[in-house]
Each structure stands twice: as C-alpha cells, then as structure tokens.
Amino acid sequence: RNISEKTNAFYQIYRDGNELRFPYHTNDGILKGVKIKTKQKDFRYEGIPTDTLFAQHRFPSTGKRIVITEGELDAASCYEAMPGWPMVSLPHGAQSAKKDIQKQIPLFQGYDEVILFLDSDDAGRQATNEAASVLPPGKTKIARLEKYKDASDALQANDPQAIREAIWNATPYRPDGIVDGKSLLSVVT
C-alpha cells in the first residue's frame, strides 16, 4: 500500500498473519480495543469500544486543520503524503459517519478547518453530506479525489500529489439553498 514503516509505527498499525490490526485509544491514549481487518475486508473488534476516532489521541485538540477519512488506511495514506498533519478516520466507516462525528464536535471546534475526505463512491458522498451538516458552520471543507476511490488507492498508485491536492483544494461546505455574497453579487448585477 506504499505506507512506510515509520507511518505504520506512528499509527501502531500492524499485520498479524493475514489480518491488519488498528488500535483504538481513549482521548488520553489508553488502549481500549483493536479493529481487525481481513484480506476479504471482514471487520471485527476486540476489546472495549471507544467513542474516539482512529488515531485521535495522536494529535492535539486544537490546530489549523484536521482531516477525517473513511478508513484507517486512508488516514495513514494521507499522513504518508502529508507527514505531521492531523489525519484521523471514522471508526465505523461511511454508514455511521454522522453519528461518529457528532460525538467529537468539541474536538472539531478546536480546529480552524475540518476537512471531510471520505471515499468517492456513492456511500462516501452521501456520508460526506450527512456528516458535514453537523460540523461547525464555516469550518467544514470537502476534499475529493477525481481519479481514485480513496486516499489509499491514490497512494498505491504512487500518486501522493493527488492526496495533497485534494486536501489543499478542499471546497467549503455549503448546504443547499445557501449562497455566498460573491455569488449573489453576480446574480443581482
């Protein structure tokens, strides 16, 4: 997947036979459980569930920008492309994005920008719209990849630049029916 050993060590991702293991911690860094992914993309969880995002404890609770991805490998892929930037992922994927993000609103209020970088499939687009609706207004941006399903696919294709461009070019979230002043000026004139 082109994720370096340094990034795997930072996120504490490791392989156990044919399974990948992703640790989940409390906000203060106490290991509570491990999400396990098989090659067939079967998931299970061992331990006590947390309300935290994957790798949330690794980053400060305030800052300029935080990126939320759909999966753990996407977060690690983004971190590989942009080391040092806060990259976290949803613990339950697209289907629970809104619920998982609502639990972390205090975290997101500490950041100037919250970038949703979910998968480019239908489920990811729907989850992006649902999740963006509960995030702090004026702070939320949407990152999209045109040529790849997700950040992991882009990194596997040796295209970390696509990840960086998607994050840098993220567009502000605007609910349907909301028009900014610049657009309104051109419509009125």
Written account of the structure:
The structure is a single chain. The chain is 33% helix and 24% strand. The chain is of the alpha/beta class and 189 residues long. The chain has a 5-stranded mixed β-sheet with strand order 6-5-7-8-9. A 4-stranded antiparallel β-sheet has the order 1-2-3-4. Strand 3 and strand 4 form a beta hairpin. The radius of gyration is 17 Å and the shape is globular. The model has no long low-confidence stretch (mean pLDDT 92).
In brief:
With 189 residues, the chain is α/β, with parallel strands linked by helices.
What does the secondary structure layout of this molecule look like, with pairings?
Blueprint: H1 5-11, E1 14-16, E2 19-25, E3 31-38, E4 43-47, E5 63-69, H2 72-81, E6 87-89, H3 97-102, H4 105-109, E7 111-117, H5 122-132, E8 140-142, H6 151-156, H7 160-168, E9 171-172, H8 181-188
Parallel strand pairs: 5-6, 5-7, 7-8
Antiparallel strand pairs: 1-2, 2-3, 3-4, 8-9
Helix pairs in contact: 2-7
